[in-house]
Amino acid sequence: MKRIISASLIFIALLFSANLWADEGMWMIHTAKPAVQAMSKAVVAIDFMGTGSFVSEDGLVITNHHVAYADVFALGTKEHNWLEEGFWARSREEELPVKGRNVQLLKETIDVTAEVQALIADGTVRPGAMMSRKLSWIMEKRYSEKTGLEAILSGVWRGTQYFISLYEQYRDVRLVAAPPVCLAAFGGDVDNWEWPQHKCDFAIYRVYSGPDGKPADYSPENIPLKTSAHLKICSKGIKEGDATIIIGFPGRTSRYASSARVNYLTETELPIVSSLRAKQMEIISGWMDKDPEVRRKYADYYFGLSNFQELALGQMQCNKRFGVVEKKQEEESRLQEWIDADPARKEKWGAMLGQISGKYEAVRRAQEDVIWYRECISRGTRIHPVASRSAALKRKADSASVVRNIRADKRNLDEIDMRVERDLFRLSLENYYEHITPEMLGPYQKEIRERFGTDYDAMCVYLWDGSWFADSARMARFLIPKERLAHLDEFLSDPLVRFFGDAKIVDFNNKVTRIQGKPSLNDLSEEYTHALYAFREDSGIAQYPDANSTMRANFGHVKGYSREDGLDCRWYTTMEGMRAKHNPDVHDFCLIPGWKAVADTAPATLKVDFLTDNDSTGGNSGSPVLNKKGELIGLLFDGVKESLATDFYFTKDYNRSVCVDIRYVMWVLKNYGRMDAVLSEMGVK
Question: What is the pTM of this model?
Answer without folding.
Answer: 0.89
